[in-house]
Automatic annotation (TrEMBL):
Subunit structure comment from the entry: Monomer.
GO MF annotation terms: AMP kinase activity; ATP binding
Catalytic activity, as annotated: AMP + ATP = 2 ADP
Lineage: Bacteria, Pseudomonadati, Bacteroidota, Flavobacteriia, Flavobacteriales
Protein name: Adenylate kinase
Protein backbone atom coordinates (compact mmCIF):
# COMPACT_ATOMS: atom_id res chain seq x y z
CA UNK A 1 0.00 0.00 0.00
CA UNK A 2 1.21 3.49 -0.91
CA UNK A 3 0.14 6.34 1.36
CA UNK A 4 1.33 9.75 0.19
CA UNK A 5 0.89 13.11 1.85
CA UNK A 6 0.78 15.85 -0.79
CA UNK A 7 2.04 18.94 0.92
CA UNK A 8 2.08 22.61 -0.04
CA UNK A 9 0.61 26.03 0.58
CA UNK A 10 -2.90 26.87 -0.60
CA UNK A 11 -2.73 27.39 -4.37
CA UNK A 12 0.41 25.26 -4.85
CA UNK A 13 -1.47 22.87 -7.16
CA UNK A 14 -2.14 19.96 -4.81
CA UNK A 15 -5.68 19.40 -6.08
CA UNK A 16 -4.70 19.59 -9.74
CA UNK A 17 -1.80 17.18 -9.31
CA UNK A 18 -3.80 14.83 -7.10
CA UNK A 19 -6.21 14.19 -9.99
CA UNK A 20 -3.36 12.86 -12.15
CA UNK A 21 -1.63 10.94 -9.37
CA UNK A 22 -4.75 9.15 -8.12
CA UNK A 23 -5.41 7.79 -11.62
CA UNK A 24 -1.83 6.83 -12.38
CA UNK A 25 -1.19 5.08 -9.06
CA UNK A 26 -4.78 3.92 -8.29
CA UNK A 27 -4.92 5.85 -5.02
CA UNK A 28 -7.93 7.09 -3.09
CA UNK A 29 -7.67 10.87 -3.05
CA UNK A 30 -8.71 12.54 0.18
CA UNK A 31 -8.70 16.31 -0.08
CA UNK A 32 -9.38 18.08 3.18
CA UNK A 33 -10.77 20.96 1.15
CA UNK A 34 -13.26 18.65 -0.59
CA UNK A 35 -14.11 16.96 2.71
CA UNK A 36 -14.69 20.35 4.33
CA UNK A 37 -16.88 21.52 1.44
CA UNK A 38 -18.93 18.29 1.55
CA UNK A 39 -19.51 18.64 5.29
CA UNK A 40 -20.32 22.35 4.97
CA UNK A 41 -22.70 21.84 2.05
CA UNK A 42 -24.52 19.10 3.94
CA UNK A 43 -24.59 21.12 7.18
CA UNK A 44 -23.03 18.37 9.25
CA UNK A 45 -22.00 19.31 12.78
CA UNK A 46 -18.34 19.15 11.73
CA UNK A 47 -19.09 21.21 8.61
CA UNK A 48 -20.80 24.00 10.54
CA UNK A 49 -17.88 24.17 12.94
CA UNK A 50 -15.28 24.13 10.14
CA UNK A 51 -17.06 26.90 8.22
CA UNK A 52 -16.91 29.28 11.17
CA UNK A 53 -13.10 29.13 11.02
CA UNK A 54 -12.74 29.12 7.24
CA UNK A 55 -14.89 32.25 6.90
CA UNK A 56 -12.33 34.10 9.02
CA UNK A 57 -9.43 32.78 6.91
CA UNK A 58 -8.24 30.58 9.77
CA UNK A 59 -7.21 26.95 9.73
CA UNK A 60 -9.80 24.52 11.05
CA UNK A 61 -8.83 23.07 14.49
CA UNK A 62 -7.06 19.72 14.49
CA UNK A 63 -9.80 17.78 16.26
CA UNK A 64 -12.39 18.71 13.61
CA UNK A 65 -10.07 18.02 10.69
CA UNK A 66 -8.87 14.69 12.10
CA UNK A 67 -12.42 13.43 12.65
CA UNK A 68 -13.42 14.36 9.09
CA UNK A 69 -10.35 12.59 7.68
CA UNK A 70 -10.88 9.43 9.72
CA UNK A 71 -14.48 9.26 8.47
CA UNK A 72 -13.24 9.44 4.86
CA UNK A 73 -10.58 6.74 5.34
CA UNK A 74 -13.20 4.44 6.86
CA UNK A 75 -15.33 4.81 3.69
CA UNK A 76 -12.52 3.19 1.59
CA UNK A 77 -11.50 -0.10 3.25
CA UNK A 78 -10.36 -1.84 0.04
CA UNK A 79 -8.11 0.89 -1.36
CA UNK A 80 -4.60 0.34 -2.74
CA UNK A 81 -3.48 3.47 -0.95
CA UNK A 82 -4.33 7.04 -0.08
CA UNK A 83 -3.27 10.38 -1.42
CA UNK A 84 -3.76 12.86 1.42
CA UNK A 85 -4.15 16.35 -0.03
CA UNK A 86 -3.91 19.17 2.49
CA UNK A 87 -3.52 16.93 5.52
CA UNK A 88 -1.72 16.89 7.88
CA UNK A 89 -1.12 20.61 8.41
CA UNK A 90 0.19 20.50 11.98
CA UNK A 91 2.43 18.23 14.05
CA UNK A 92 -0.61 17.12 16.07
CA UNK A 93 -2.39 16.12 12.85
CA UNK A 94 0.70 14.25 11.60
CA UNK A 95 0.93 12.29 14.85
CA UNK A 96 -2.83 11.59 14.79
CA UNK A 97 -2.62 10.39 11.18
CA UNK A 98 0.29 8.06 11.98
CA UNK A 99 -1.51 6.65 15.00
CA UNK A 100 -4.74 6.17 13.05
CA UNK A 101 -2.99 4.48 10.09
CA UNK A 102 -1.09 2.22 12.51
CA UNK A 103 -4.43 0.89 13.81
CA UNK A 104 -4.97 -0.36 10.25
CA UNK A 105 -1.43 -1.71 9.88
CA UNK A 106 -0.53 1.10 7.46
CA UNK A 107 2.00 3.93 7.43
CA UNK A 108 2.98 7.02 5.43
CA UNK A 109 5.15 6.10 2.43
CA UNK A 110 6.27 9.66 1.64
CA UNK A 111 5.43 13.32 2.05
CA UNK A 112 5.81 15.21 -1.20
CA UNK A 113 5.89 19.02 -1.03
CA UNK A 114 4.96 21.22 -3.96
CA UNK A 115 7.10 24.30 -3.42
CA UNK A 116 6.35 27.73 -4.91
CA UNK A 117 6.87 31.42 -4.15
CA UNK A 118 4.15 33.11 -2.06
CA UNK A 119 3.61 35.96 -4.53
CA UNK A 120 2.95 33.53 -7.39
CA UNK A 121 0.54 31.57 -5.18
CA UNK A 122 -1.37 34.68 -4.07
CA UNK A 123 -2.02 35.54 -7.72
CA UNK A 124 -3.08 31.95 -8.47
CA UNK A 125 -5.61 32.03 -5.63
CA UNK A 126 -7.01 35.43 -6.55
CA UNK A 127 -7.46 34.16 -10.11
CA UNK A 128 -9.10 30.95 -8.84
CA UNK A 129 -11.36 33.04 -6.61
CA UNK A 130 -12.89 34.71 -9.68
CA UNK A 131 -14.52 31.40 -10.68
CA UNK A 132 -14.51 29.19 -7.57
CA UNK A 133 -16.94 31.25 -5.52
CA UNK A 134 -14.77 30.60 -2.47
CA UNK A 135 -14.64 33.71 -0.27
CA UNK A 136 -11.26 32.66 1.14
CA UNK A 137 -9.78 32.90 -2.41
CA UNK A 138 -11.15 36.38 -3.14
CA UNK A 139 -9.54 38.43 -0.38
CA UNK A 140 -5.79 38.99 -0.50
CA UNK A 141 -5.60 39.69 3.25
CA UNK A 142 -7.29 36.36 4.03
CA UNK A 143 -4.95 34.58 1.62
CA UNK A 144 -1.89 36.11 3.27
CA UNK A 145 -3.31 35.18 6.69
CA UNK A 146 -3.60 31.57 5.50
CA UNK A 147 0.09 31.68 4.51
CA UNK A 148 1.10 33.13 7.89
CA UNK A 149 -0.79 30.33 9.63
CA UNK A 150 0.76 27.81 7.24
CA UNK A 151 4.27 29.07 7.97
CA UNK A 152 3.65 29.02 11.70
CA UNK A 153 1.80 25.71 12.02
CA UNK A 154 2.64 23.63 8.94
CA UNK A 155 6.26 24.42 8.14
CA UNK A 156 7.46 22.46 11.22
CA UNK A 157 6.18 19.33 9.45
CA UNK A 158 9.08 19.62 7.03
CA UNK A 159 11.58 18.88 9.81
CA UNK A 160 9.28 16.21 11.25
CA UNK A 161 9.12 14.29 7.96
CA UNK A 162 12.78 14.96 7.11
CA UNK A 163 13.75 13.29 10.39
CA UNK A 164 11.77 10.22 9.29
CA UNK A 165 13.35 10.38 5.80
CA UNK A 166 9.88 10.77 4.28
CA UNK A 167 10.08 14.35 2.93
CA UNK A 168 10.47 14.92 -0.82
CA UNK A 169 10.40 18.52 -2.15
CA UNK A 170 9.24 19.13 -5.73
CA UNK A 171 9.34 22.38 -7.70
CA UNK A 172 5.70 23.45 -8.07
CA UNK A 173 6.31 26.08 -10.78
CA UNK A 174 5.86 25.15 -14.43
CA UNK A 175 3.24 23.55 -16.60
CA UNK A 176 0.87 21.00 -15.12
CA UNK A 177 2.56 18.29 -17.21
CA UNK A 178 6.06 19.28 -16.05
CA UNK A 179 5.02 19.19 -12.40
CA UNK A 180 3.22 15.86 -12.86
CA UNK A 181 6.40 14.42 -14.39
CA UNK A 182 8.48 15.64 -11.42
CA UNK A 183 6.02 14.11 -8.96
CA UNK A 184 5.91 10.81 -10.87
CA UNK A 185 9.70 10.51 -10.76
CA UNK A 186 9.62 10.90 -6.98
CA UNK A 187 6.82 8.34 -6.52
CA UNK A 188 8.39 5.83 -8.94
CA UNK A 189 11.57 5.91 -6.84
CA UNK A 190 9.88 5.28 -3.47
Amino acid sequence: MINIVLFGKPGAGKGTQAEFLKEKYHLTHISTGDVFRYNIKNNTDLGIEAKSYMDKGELVPDAVTIKMLQDEVEKNPGTKGFLFDGFPRTLAQAEALEAFLATKGWSITATIALEADDEILVQRLLERGKTSGRPDDQDEDKIRNRYEEYNEKTAPLIEYYQAKNLFRPVDGIGSVAEITERLSKVIDNL
